[in-house]
Amino acid sequence: MYQISAKGPREAIEPAWDALAWTDPSPAGAVDAKEDGRHAWRLDAYCETAEEADACKVIIEEVSPQLNVVIEALEDRDWVTLSLEGLPPVEAGRFIVAGSHILAKSAPGKTPILIEAGPAFGTGHHGTTLGCLIGLEHVLRTARPQKVLDIGTGSGLLAIAAVKTGSKRAWGTEIDTDSVRVANENAAKNHVANAFKTFETGGGMNTTIRKDAPYDLVFANILFRPLVGLASEIERLTAPGGHIILSGLLSPQEPLVRKAYGNRGLALVKRVRRDGWSSLVFRKAG
């Protein structure tokens, strides 16, 4: 395993992140960009081979030549899981997300969500997941969505949170086999497996998901370009008066996403910004 890192101003980090994330196929297995201090950002990418690491370096330097790119060989261990172990619990409104050892001592009155360290995205620590939880808290002030769709569910955290606060049924979609397994395991660990199931599919194309539409609440915590591309599909899958919670976009990417959904008659009712990431809550008329 190799880690490719670079530090610099946001205007240099963001295009490098975008280039790595959208090269098809990308040499990077995972890419992350975040603030690393005042006026400084950090880009981290991970890949399996030295050749892929070199390819990542070339892409970054072509897009942002001012960045100093460092490649580091990592010990052959499950770095995704290890990086999550020992993380503090996450609290977002009524929700607390943590491992079992912390939830056993969690504050009364909170809605607990058990997510152990694992390979699927979504522990609540990332700005996008946290923003979606805050967005769900906003929706729950005025609505009780009964049917939920979670596109790109990852660990299943968001759908689990919805079910634990009153939703009767939730479907998840994932393109990654491991994430499907982890999400369904997390549903069982949180005692909501009778109400939440994840399918390996892209977007909302699964037959079961289409037949069960429309949904009172749709989550899509994915990436900027798929969010724009799926706007029409997500709008069709959402019930009149229903809500859509979107994330996976950097704050400068907001205008295009707002335009894509606003052009379909959806009203922006809440915006959350965390660590340079934006989460948007829309409501469908009706």
Automatic annotation (TrEMBL):
<keyword id="KW-0963">Cytoplasm</keyword>
<dbReference type="GO" id="GO:0032259">
    <property type="term" value="P:methylation"/>
</dbReference>
<dbReference type="InterPro" id="IPR029063">
    <property type="entry name" value="SAM-dependent_MTases_sf"/>
</dbReference>
<comment type="similarity">
    <text>Belongs to the methyltransferase superfamily. PrmA family.</text>
</comment>
<dbReference type="GO" id="GO:0016279">
    <property type="term" value="F:protein-lysine N-methyltransferase activity"/>
</dbReference>
<dbReference type="InterPro" id="IPR050078">
    <property type="entry name" value="Ribosomal_L11_MeTrfase_PrmA"/>
</dbReference>
<keyword id="KW-0808">Transferase</keyword>
<protein>
    <recommendedName>
        <fullName>Ribosomal protein L11 methyltransferase</fullName>
        <ecNumber>2.1.1.-</ecNumber>
    </recommendedName>
</protein>
<comment type="function">
    <text>Methylates ribosomal protein L11.</text>
</comment>
<dbReference type="InterPro" id="IPR004498">
    <property type="entry name" value="Ribosomal_PrmA_MeTrfase"/>
</dbReference>
<dbReference type="Pfam" id="PF06325">
    <property type="entry name" value="PrmA"/>
</dbReference>
<keyword id="KW-0949">S-adenosyl-L-methionine</keyword>
<dbReference type="GO" id="GO:0005737">
    <property type="term" value="C:cytoplasm"/>
</dbReference>
<keyword id="KW-0489">Methyltransferase</keyword>
